[in-house]
Structures are given as C-alpha cells and as structure tokens.
Specification:
The structure is a homotetramer of 360-residue chains. The first copy, chain A, is α+β, with helices and mostly antiparallel strands and 360 residues long. Helix content of chain A is 26%, strand content 23%. A 5-stranded antiparallel sheet of chain A has the order 1-2-3-7-4, with helices on one face. A 5-stranded antiparallel sheet of chain A has the order 9-8-10-16-11. A two-stranded antiparallel ribbon of chain A has the order 5-6. In chain A, helix 1 runs antiparallel to helix 3, helix 3 packs across helix 8 and helix 6 runs antiparallel to helix 8. Chains in contact: A-B, A-C, A-D, B-C, B-D, C-D. Chains A and B meet through strand 1, helix 2, helix 6, strand 11 and helix 7 of A and strand 1, helix 2, helix 6, strand 11 and helix 7 of B. Strand 12 of chain C pairs antiparallel with strand 11 of chain D, so a sheet runs across the interface.
Chain lengths: 360, 360, 360, 360
Amino acid sequence: MANQLGSFYRTSTFGESHGYAVGALIDGVPGNLEIDLKRIQTWLERRRPGQSALTSPRQEKDLLVALSGLQNGRTLGSPLCFAIFNQDQKPEDYAHLEKVYRPSHADWSWEKKFGIKPQSGGGRSSARETIGRVISGAVAEQVLEAFGLSLSVVAWVDTIKDLRANVKNTPTRGEVDQSVVRCPDPIAARAFETLISDVKKAGDSVGGTIQCLVSGIPAGLGEPVFAKLEAELAKAMLSLPASKSFEIGEGLGATFMLGSEHNDGFTLKEGAVCPESNRHGGVQGGISTGHPLAFRVGFKPVATLGKEVDTLNQEGQPVKIEAGGRHDPCVLPRAVPIVEAMAYIVVLDMFLAQKTREIP
Amino acid sequence: MANQLGSFYRTSTFGESHGYAVGALIDGVPGNLEIDLKRIQTWLERRRPGQSALTSPRQEKDLLVALSGLQNGRTLGSPLCFAIFNQDQKPEDYAHLEKVYRPSHADWSWEKKFGIKPQSGGGRSSARETIGRVISGAVAEQVLEAFGLSLSVVAWVDTIKDLRANVKNTPTRGEVDQSVVRCPDPIAARAFETLISDVKKAGDSVGGTIQCLVSGIPAGLGEPVFAKLEAELAKAMLSLPASKSFEIGEGLGATFMLGSEHNDGFTLKEGAVCPESNRHGGVQGGISTGHPLAFRVGFKPVATLGKEVDTLNQEGQPVKIEAGGRHDPCVLPRAVPIVEAMAYIVVLDMFLAQKTREIP
Amino acid sequence: MANQLGSFYRTSTFGESHGYAVGALIDGVPGNLEIDLKRIQTWLERRRPGQSALTSPRQEKDLLVALSGLQNGRTLGSPLCFAIFNQDQKPEDYAHLEKVYRPSHADWSWEKKFGIKPQSGGGRSSARETIGRVISGAVAEQVLEAFGLSLSVVAWVDTIKDLRANVKNTPTRGEVDQSVVRCPDPIAARAFETLISDVKKAGDSVGGTIQCLVSGIPAGLGEPVFAKLEAELAKAMLSLPASKSFEIGEGLGATFMLGSEHNDGFTLKEGAVCPESNRHGGVQGGISTGHPLAFRVGFKPVATLGKEVDTLNQEGQPVKIEAGGRHDPCVLPRAVPIVEAMAYIVVLDMFLAQKTREIP
Amino acid sequence: MANQLGSFYRTSTFGESHGYAVGALIDGVPGNLEIDLKRIQTWLERRRPGQSALTSPRQEKDLLVALSGLQNGRTLGSPLCFAIFNQDQKPEDYAHLEKVYRPSHADWSWEKKFGIKPQSGGGRSSARETIGRVISGAVAEQVLEAFGLSLSVVAWVDTIKDLRANVKNTPTRGEVDQSVVRCPDPIAARAFETLISDVKKAGDSVGGTIQCLVSGIPAGLGEPVFAKLEAELAKAMLSLPASKSFEIGEGLGATFMLGSEHNDGFTLKEGAVCPESNRHGGVQGGISTGHPLAFRVGFKPVATLGKEVDTLNQEGQPVKIEAGGRHDPCVLPRAVPIVEAMAYIVVLDMFLAQKTREIP
C-alpha cells in the first residue's frame, strides 16, 4: 500500500515537508503496555536536522505530540497517532522553485503521477516523511521489549564514496553516535568527515553504504515465499529516500563464492542443532535462524547540490537554481537511525505474524 | 502476506516440490480478455529443468491446467487457478534426507518456524514453487497487452562468479535464449558455460547476477513512500530462492559517484520535459519516469552440491549426504524467466493502482 | 482490519472520546482534486451533539483541521489527515465511572480484550469515533463527483420503537433535516419527537431503524463472492455503534415472499436490457444494477440511561451510577449522516475497484 | 477483496459451476497440525445437492482432493489448496440459456461488470462456489481445536415464509440434521417440508431465516471499530448467495425495546464480573463477551423457478425459459452448514488476531 507498511504491526505515515504536520498512525499494538515518549523523542533527536555542521541547518525541534491511543502513558489498544507540528518551514526559501523541476528529485515524477507539483521542499517525498518511520520504529522497539524481546539493532555508516570503515566487532549505538558521521571506526570517521566537508564546500554531495546488524532475533521469523524476512527488509530499505541497493548476508560478495565456500554447516549448541557460521546473514529460506540479521543499504549522493544548477521549469524553459533550501551534503549519518527504525518495524511485523502460530 | 503478492493484481502460489500439484491463484484480472495458454506454456518451458546439460535433469513436462476463470479462452473476471500436476517426483531420491538438515537449505529454519520438516525436496521452499510465479508473470504480460501496454522485459545473466558479460545494447529475448546460460554476449556465454561445467564436475556450485531491463513502461507508476516501484521490485526479487542482493539504476555504483555526476538533468522531448539520462534506473521518488527500469539481482551459489557433504540429522548426529536429488550447479540461467515474470507482476500491480486515479 | 476500512479508498480513524484529538487518515485519493473543507464541516454539523433538545448537550464545535495532503485546497495525492481537537471533554463528569462497568457498554469487553479499561466516556468505543467516518464520507462524496458521479445518498429515520414513518417518494436531504428527528414524514416526525422526549423524561432510551437510498450508482459496482456490495455495506453498517441489523432490498420481507413474487423481470430501457423493478435493492449477485441501493439498519436503544442504574465495579462490588455524562436518549437522528457517510465510503471503494478493469 | 476473506486466516475460493474444478486456497494455518480429511468430507456431504427430494437432483459426489499443504496428514504451514473436480456438469442442460438473462440471477449484472456472460449455471455466482467456503470452515474447526478451542456452532432453519419453529434450547447438530429441512423442532420441520414440497410442485420457490448459535467462544475476540465481530459476521453472511438480512442478538427486535429493557446487567460468576443475560448476542462494542454468539440470516426465495418464465435475451428479445437446470425450491436446508462454516472462518480469523496481543 502506498502509505502503509506491515500486515500485523501497521504503520501509516502522513504529512508533507511544508504542511501543517507530519506523523504516523500505528495500529496493531496490544493494550496496557507502557510507552515511554521520551525514548521516542530521543530517536527523533538522532534523526533531526541541525545536529552538526554536516547536516541541514533546518532548525526543527521535532516535538512529539501523541494525539491518540494512550491513557496515562499506557496503550489502550487503539491506534497510536503521533504528530510533529511543522515549525521552521520557511516555504519562502522554496518560492523560487515553485515552477521548477529539480534534477533527480521527485518533483517531476510526482507531477506525472498525480497531476500536481508539490510547490516546495518535495512535499511528501521530502526526507521529512521519515519522521513517521522513526516514531514507528521507536514504538516497535518498546513493543518488542514488552513481548520479552530485547533486540540489539545497530547500524553505522560503512562506506562513503570509495572510503571504507574497518569494523570488526558489532559496535554499540553509543560507539556509532560518537562521531557526527555515525561511523564507529574513528579513523574512517575522520576521513568521512573530511570528505563530506570537502564535498560540501564544493557544493556537491556524496553517497555510501550503511551496514546494519540485528542481534537477539529468535529463529523462526519471516514468512516463506513472498514475505521472506529479507524480502520485507529489502522493500523497507528501498522505500527510503535515496537508497539504491540492498544486500543480505554476504550480498553481492556471495556471487563470487563457490557453494562449498558459501554454505554454512550445522553444529550443536547446548545440544541443539543450529547453523555454525552466518554467511547467510541471519535468514535461510526467508526465515530467521537466530544468527544476527546482517544487511547493507546503498545510498546515492543527495540530489540537492549546494551550487547553481541548470534545469527546466514547468514551461520547459531553461532556468538556473541555487540550493536555497536547507539540505545535507550526505544523507547517510541521519539515515542510520531511520534504517534501524525500519528494521524494528519489519521484525515486529514478522514477530506478530509468528505469534498466530503459537499452539499452547 | 506469506504466500500472496500484490494489492491489485494478486498472485497466490501454492504447492510443494513433491506434492500433488503446484500452481497459482490469480485475482484481479478484468473479464472478457483472451488468454493464450500456449504462451504461458512457452514461459514454463523456459523455466523448467532438463533444458540443457547444465540444469537439473528432473524431467517434468510442467503441463499447464486451467482449473478456473476461463470460458472458451476468455477471462470471466473470476480468479484464474492454474495447476501443474507433479509427475517426475521421485521422493525415493530424497528418502535418505528425510531426517537430515541439508546445509544452507530451508529444512532447518522451516522446522524451527512450523514445527515440521518437509521430508523431501525442500517442500514449499523448493525452486519448484516459482512455477506459480512464472504462470502469473505470463498472465500479467497478456493483461498488460490488453490494456495497450506492450512492455519489453528482458533479463540476462550478466556475471557468473568473477566473469562479466559485455552487453552494450538492450538484447532481445531471442538473443538471450540463444545460449544455454542465457547471456547475449557470445564470448561471455562460452566462458560462463565452461565455468559452470567445470564447477559441476567438481561437485560444486556457483552464483552470479542477472540484469533486467523493462522498456515501454509509462511515467507515473509506483506508489510514493512505502510501495515505491523499486521497493516492490526489491521485495519481489529478494523473495526469489537464492537471491542475495538488489540494485536499481546505478545501484552500488551510485555510492561511488558525486551528486553532480549522478544527477540526471532535464531535457525537452517533443516539447515535453523529461529526464535526459537514466542513471536513476527508471524511477525517481519511487515513481517511473518512462525511462527503462534497470535493475540487477545477485544470486548465491546453489546450496545443493554434487559431492558428499557433512551435516547433522534431526538427532544431532553427524551424517554424510550425497546430492542424490536433481539440482542445478548454477541457478541463474533458469532464474532469468523468473526475474522477468516477477517484473511483469510488479508492473501490472502498479499499473492497476494508477488506473484508480484516472479522472475522465 | 481493526481501525481501517476499504481496499482502494482506505479510511483509518483514530482517537478517543476524551483524548487529544479524533480524526481520520484517508489514502487512495487522486491528486489535483479540489476539496471543499466547508462542505466537510457541514457534514460534521449534521453529526455533532447539541443540535437539539433531543441530543447530547456536549458542546463541541468539532472544527476540522487538515494536517496533510492538501496544497491550496487541492489534493496532492498523499494521505489526507484530518483532526478534530477535543475541547469540551469534561472527564470530571466521568470520574465517578473510572472503575465502573457501565451495562451494555464496551467498558467490560474492552478490558477483557486489551487488559485496560478506558477511564471515561467509552474511549475509542464512544460515538465520537464516528467523526472520522463522517469526514471520510464527506471526502468520498467530493471524490466521486470529481470522477463524474453525483450520487444522491439520502437516509432517514424510518421507525422509532413501534412507530413507523410513511415515506412514499425518495426525500431530499433538506426534507429529512427539516425535523430534529430526521424523518421526512411530518406526522411521524412529530410522533417520534414526542416519543423520544417522553422516553428522555423517563430517563430511558429508545431505538429504531434508518432507511437509506443511494441513487445514481452505475451498474457493475461490487465484487462478486466475498466483497459483494451488500456484504461490504452490511459490514460498514454493523460496525456502527448500537447497530443490530441490516437488510438489503426487501430484506426480511423477502423471506415472506414466493420466488415468483420476489423476482424482478427484465425490460428494455432506451434499447438496453435492465431489471424492471427493484425488489433486489440495487444489487444482484453482489453487483450493482443501476437501480437505487436500498437498505435499512436497525439500532438498539442507547445503553446510557438518564436514571440511576445498578451495576458492578472492577472489584465486583455493586454500585449505583447516574448518567452524569452527556448522551442522547435516541441515537438515530445523529446516525443519519453517519449511515450516509458510510454508504459513500463503500461505494467509492467499489468504484475504484471497478476502475482497475477499464480497458481503453 | 473480491475472492478472499480474512486477514489472519485467509480463504480464497475459486472455480465456476461448470468449469474444471471448484475449491479453496487457505493460508495462515500453523504447521504440524493433523487435519482429518474425512471430517471435511462429512461437511461437504451436508452441503451437497441430492440429499433429499427437496434439494437439487444434481448428483455430485464432491470428492475432496488436497493439492498442497499436507504431509502425511499434517499441515506443513504452507497454503492448503483443496479442489473438487466437477463431474456431473451437464452444461447441455443450460445450452438454451446461453444468451438469456435469467431474472434475479447474476447473469446480467455479471455481464455489466465484466463484459462477458457466464454461459451456463451461473459460473462463479453459482451456489457451487460455497463448496470452498465449507471446506475452509471445516478446516477452521480443526485449527481452532488445535488451539484448544472446541466451539459448538449450530445453525438451523428457524422460519420458512411465515412459518416459524419453536426452539427453546440450543439443539445439537444431530438434532438439526434429523429432518431434511434442518429444523430441530419436529412439528415445524414437518410443516416446512410440506410447504417446500407444495411450493416445488407449484414450480415456485420460498425463503426464510436461519438462526445460528456459537457457544464456547472466549471473551475478547473481535476488533473494535471497523472489524467488529458482528460486522465481520454480517459481511460473511451477506456474501452468501440469496441472503438479504442479518441480525445480531435481539436484532430487529431490539428496535422495539426500551434501553432499560434491552440492557444486560452485570453479575458475578465464580468471582468474576460478567454480563448476566445475553440480549447483546455475544458481542459488546464489537468484542465477544463469552456468551454465545447469536445471529440470524434471512434468505430470499431462490430465483430459479420450476416453471416457464418470461425474460429477455442478450438481444433484448422476449424469450421463455424453463428451469431445465437442477435447483432447490428452497435454499435454506443446504445453507445451514454454509452459515456454520462461515461462522468458523470469522471466529478463527478474530482468534488469530487476538493471539498477536498475548503478552507472555
């Protein structure tokens, strides 16, 4: 569905970049669970612009308002509607873009589809839409905990352009957030910072890849055939703005291996049979194995540039645009919590699906 | 949903490798359309085993039977149910595997999920399930034609292990099918064949990537936010057995480019504004642009090997298994029509979604 | 789905009686349509309490706020989120009910399901939830108009207890709204008023039936088998608070007729074959015939009484409650626009479904 | 969805009256459950024609074939596909109807929708489609048992035309099946038989109502707002061929009562608070209370008559048709197991929904 994700834990996001509000409507949460709004707000802080010199200077406090579904901090079992009322909208920054198609944005294709061009800031296609996703992921984290499942979901920036981090062990979220580029390898982090800073000065932009590990996931999640766990993850990740690739386990690397190299053998762990290694990336036949989910997502360089760009307007006339609006030269540091949020959403959906099979 | 794909053109597949039948139930097709069953059968010929020395010798004729939805070759508007009655099942080939977990197959994870192990041939996780997908893709092709949309969907094997084809222009399906490895570059095709043949002799297996181009798609398909065209494609492709990666447009390559290099500018074509180049791979903001959809899918080497393998059985005892069952040393040549079929399914679903917006 | 209706035109409602806001999230609306918010507000006026001495004195202005999906009054194609911020909540009126189960309300069953009891005013089960439905119906009306379909949807109160109106011709909405009880038969209207007024004075409540006619609907809407037009209408109507019965066409009356009496013959109208009479109520085999949809909905007497009532509290102790909260002695007059709204929602959903079958 | 019911326990039916097969595809069943096919076959015997002189003489054995999802009688967790291959089709009986619109059948409206007229026997709109529903209900019964829930679902014919049975206590299914008209009141049963027999001789048909009681249902099932338990039941029942009304609890009778008469008070049962009486029919606020679900469904007289009827053909010419095809003068006796089957399907769907909320 266009604006909805999930069959059991169902998230609808709403809102445009420069409208009244953005938010999420979340259905499928059990009743009588405590939801800590401060923890959701903390997630939003990690996503919001203005965190560092490398991100968009748009100054939004992104204050969470709960419109429905809670009574004294506990879920009623009814839909949770959360809104962030837009504040620092400055549509005047975008006035000069009203009739202009920005290259490699969704302005033009949106108009082709819906017969109307969002006048400013990308409307619904703005990265601001991801606020609703982060809220939903933050709720999913707490719902999973209520079910007794404390996942560790950690993503980090693994490559920027042709620079690559060297991360051996699973980092903590704290280690990731230590650097403004969200890379737990300090040497790579500095190199990433320098590169992004240089690219920004040149009025250009840059992409890279995010690696994500989900530990603590039980075996048996994921639906065979179409709703394989990796298929739902791939959909969730490719639905993020600017994402261009998804890999599970060894990913593209698997295509270079022989079957005898790639296969994971079985071993005994506390008397139980289970896969010995995790080249499979936590899923076999679309079903989780208990090994960490390991996947990576590639993001293209942001389409908005910090320099004058030639393009066409709605009348087909050549125009020059300058990036008056606020934007990031590199989307990846802020995409880290969004990737994590999407992982929580997908896992909770699959977890609830599996609950329907629990014979007492 | 577990065994169903699509919101508007809805495909459910059913059946296990060694059961009574496999097939597809298809809903959402308009009435009074002519459906040519012979064309569907031709698709099945391209998918079926036993096509060459490089594929599984399982000899299935895979004869299509239409159980419902047709009257004198025309659709009634009711669900189309197609079945292939299994014939060359030989479960005795798999009898020695009844209690054994084959490495990197779905035997073990299926049992973890459902509490029962398919006794032979992978059950529902067998590649035989993809018969239903191919049937549905073949129907989708004809339905799109009835709507006046003659897509050209062509996929081919682009890499095998570290060998890469050199394909400059979009090949025809005929050019692809000329070689048993389904690669339109004759030099690469020969190299692929030799490699696969050698790997087979060594009792091993090998993976690679498939490139797919969808031409003739109108601008405006794909749903913003969660059901982006590339997101639905990613899900469809990652739901295929053995697939490990998905890339749209420049894919991972985009992560190495600057924004100024990757952006596609606008141009005028017969007076209308449209993107000049197609680094975006046919989608912007999740919506098709009219440029060909360009994506690639990576497949791991097949888990079944042609040599003795050490593993564990359900009691946790070490056992040795030989690949008595029939299998392919490389899944890619037969995966080509399956990738194409999935592309048809996704595009038709998005096409029908867009029809709900046509204001007269 | 719990809080969502429709497959093509999808309405989610949210909010509790005494929470921050109630509203609707609506997806599936084409882009570039003009939406007149004043017309939606007019619908809300017809639904809101405080309209007459016979309805709840709760004084809510129910002012519509559009949170998303609109740009200068035109749809963007993205989800429309509408909220009504609650104002006249007076939860103190319900403080004495915090631990009490009100007879024949949802307090007790909600707690059984979700493990938590809404403390006041019924929470999500309050009739206040229907605000979102009315908003969605009012939007559906305008969307149908944009598609060139000007339906006439008129409902009225046909019976109150054992009093019955005598309505020969389809009334206009104006004729219905002339009386505070929303009955176009002036004699019956006066009788209804007197009865409801007497019942109110006695601290009691009363039910009845609403008749609805949908004219202008084209033939061919409604999905055969499970999503028959009458089946979706039945679901929509039985999902309304206090509704207990649904009849299509002759309804229960049909069970007293012979087939030869009930059957509708065919005739020629401007050269085209069509049913002559409309005992079928506008649907045959689940599909609309072009004749007006004719259905009726029965509502039980409101559970909240205006006098002291014996009940039990959460500890199982007998308590006496007085209806301190504001309520209607008869739900039917205010249910009229809600029934109409639901009819619009169902018809638009079926209309969009049918658009996917339009071969050019 | 057109041919699919349920969000958690999902049933798709397929097949036309005179096609190759009819059947059901069922998804959402846990793995490793034993399914007794003989019990399903027994359900089919209760539905099939040719049971008595009062039902259609069409002689179908309706032998169940399991195409997928089972291994040695146990579920694999994959979709269960069941087919009945049509045998006694006799399309020649319908040859004279090929271009004729039968009054009050779906021939004409189907053609309006899909642009094609099923040539014989009603195609998909035939009561033969309900075979798939009965299969699914019979599976649902066994799945509920596996979850430890042994419901008692008993329906019976309560009225035929203006004759009414007198049933004080909940009958057993055996008591119901004792009479060919499926009425547990022997006096009424004889009167029903005589009436139907007379009507049949007169070449006419007759309708009536079926009452259904579902005992053993736990409190807490049913989703608030749109997917109320009674709303889903209403949809399921109004999706049955020939059904025209649905009532829950006191139904229409509730509209004649005062609130003080209709309200159910609370009492203590083994120390727990619960409703004392069951005027509510087993649901409050859309959620089950633990009291038996009590509902009734009205069916119109069958449209097919046993005498010559005037109608029009596709060219608009008047023609006379005789009911050469086989049909029932009264649909109700055979509808009893279908109503029961639909109740099982709806309850299982709601039961699985509720399982997603079980916090350990």
